[in-house]
Amino acid sequence: MSLRSDAVVVTYEPDIATLLSLIAALVPQVDKIVLVDNGSSNLQTWRHQLPTQSVLLVELGSNQGIATALNAGFAAVRQRGVATFVTLFDQDSAPSDGMVSRLESYHDELTARGPVAQIGPYFFEKNRGYYLPFIEFSAGIPRRKHAPEAGGWTTADYLITSGSLLPLSAIDQVGVLDDSLFIDYVDIEWGLRAKAAGLQSYGVFDVRMEHAIGEKALKLANVRLAMHKPIRRYYYYRNALLLCKRSYIPFSWKLSEVLRLSVKFFIFALFSRHRVDDVRMMTKGIIDGVRGRTGKLGESGGNAG
């Protein structure tokens, strides 16, 4: 068990067996698990199954988005005043044995190179059946980094939230997550903001974690695309455009993302199982992104800013 790390797990309508499996995997690895619930309707059916000595439950009462929930977790970790690091997890993640302590060891090694923003594991995405690359832009071109035979670590511009280990000192320097985005691009925004502040993110190839992104993947020829509910398309397109307006976001990322999402618009419009709803939500996301609307869709907080 690491006494240097607390874990923050965000839940929303979780599968109970999967959540309890995650908790069981984390109990031997961290000092405390801060579980932040985003207004799950099934909370009363599983809260009594949590190991109370290991888990601190924070109830938000309603779905306030991933960034707000994680920030609430950061606040709870700070109030405890014990941890040096916070590790972040989705409710359906499957961390490997000893993952947290190994990420801490990599942090200790990599601080010799300069300030560390975050360190994350190599993801096996179960719905698509392959490892997700770490992304870093070089000469304006996104490089997708897969594991070399030797394993080890690599630099990255940002990481997937789940599984990442952040020093609390990095959060002090960079700031908390941007809750105006509500969900999607929250991890990308923070990683790019950290890079602009002079902190480096790292991916570790020989620390592995399984995770499922979205629903059953859409297969086109040899390409598998992550599928989500149509409302997620709204946040993807809106938040990408919101980030394109920010000065600390590199132009190369903006250009790459606009091109990528333009291609995906037509793919989802033609081949998605929810094509009508997807087109409607993507279009609304584009309009609201241009208008500068933020927050949760349909709430008064989603105002132009």
How would you characterize this protein structure?
By secondary structure, the protein is α/β, with parallel strands linked by helices. It has two domains: 5-211, Spore Coat Polysaccharide Biosynthesis Protein SpsA, Chain A, CATH 3.90.550.10; 215-291, no CATH class. It is built from nine helices and 14 strands. The strands form four sheets. It has a five-stranded mixed sheet with strand order 3-2-1-4-11, with helices on both faces. Helix 7 packs antiparallel against helix 8, helix 7 packs parallel to helix 9 and helix 8 (251-271) runs antiparallel to helix 9. The radius of gyration is 19 Å and the shape is globular. The N and C termini lie far apart (44 Å). 41% of the residues are buried. The model is unreliable at 300-305 (pLDDT under 50).
Low-confidence stretches: 300-305
Helix content: 25-40%
Count of discrete alpha- or pi-helical segments spanning 4 or more residues = 9
The structural domain count equals 2
Structural class of the secondary elements?
Answer: alpha/beta
Gap from first CA to last CA: 44 Å
Mean pLDDT: 91
Q: How would you sum up the major sheet?
A: 5 strands, mixed
SSE pattern = EHEHEHEEHEEEEEEHHEEEHHH
Shape: globular
CATH architecture annotation name of the largest domain: Alpha-Beta Complex
CATH topology of the largest domain: Spore Coat Polysaccharide Biosynthesis Protein SpsA, Chain A
Strand percentage: 25-35%
CATH class of the largest domain: Alpha Beta
Strand order of the largest sheet: 3-2-1-4-11
Number of strands: 14
> What oligomeric arrangement do these chains adopt?
single chain
